[in-house]
Amino acid sequence: MSEIARNLDSILGRIRSAAGRAGRDPASVRLVAVSKTHPAESVREASEAGQRAFGESKVQEAMTKIPLLPAEIEWHFIGHVQTNKIRRALPHFQLFHGVDNGNLARQMDRIAADCGSFPRILIEVNVSGEATKFGFSPEALKSEIGALMGLPRVQVAGLMTMAPYGANPEDARPFFAALRRLREELEQQTGTSLPELSMGMSGDFEAAVAEGSTIVRVGSAVFGERPQKRPATDF
Questions:
Q1: Does domain 3-223 have CATH number 3.20.20.10?
Q2: Cα–Cα nearest to 27, from 199, 215, 218, 205
Q3: Which helix (H) or strand (E) holds 123?
Q4: How far apart are the first and last CA of the chain?
Q5: pLDDT at res. 234
Q6: Is residue 229 predicted with pLDDT exceeding 60?
């Protein structure tokens, strides 16, 4: 068994254990292996070990990998989506994590109409209020959720957040719990299900699972530390 396969087996075991402790069905939590900055060979190795969903954050980088890899891979865009990259990205990604403002959602909807697609998105919420993070504030999202869900092409599948960085994963739990509660409020407000909660990364995914995450985004714990040399700037 390769190192990546061993890492995946360990992470999936930890997800199952965290779900069991929370009284949840482990099958209700999906792992997105964050492959940004890692080569296609590493993604193939993970795919051969059974991993199906991978996360990229640069369109240009993803476009170099996707043609080299199995067609059954499910690609998630996990970074900030630049409006001038939407048209290139739409055909290749099954889920966009982190649509962080109304203008971006409307632009995506307009371009999707041109392309004949119906992109699935997660709305990014800045639960912590940190100035360095993208996303709607909870109050702003409550005001705009009706308009976002009324867009004819974009399909709002749920919410996404990133907790503040910290050494103790338990410190992240209040932020994950806040996103879960916000999801419940929005479902009551709109009368529409928002099934996905994308929250939790390598350092805190078990805490996220305990608070209801349905998608965890794990990179370094799968592939190891990112290569020192970054890919060329996205263009």
A1: yes
A2: 215
A3: strand 120-124
A4: 37
A5: 44
A6: no
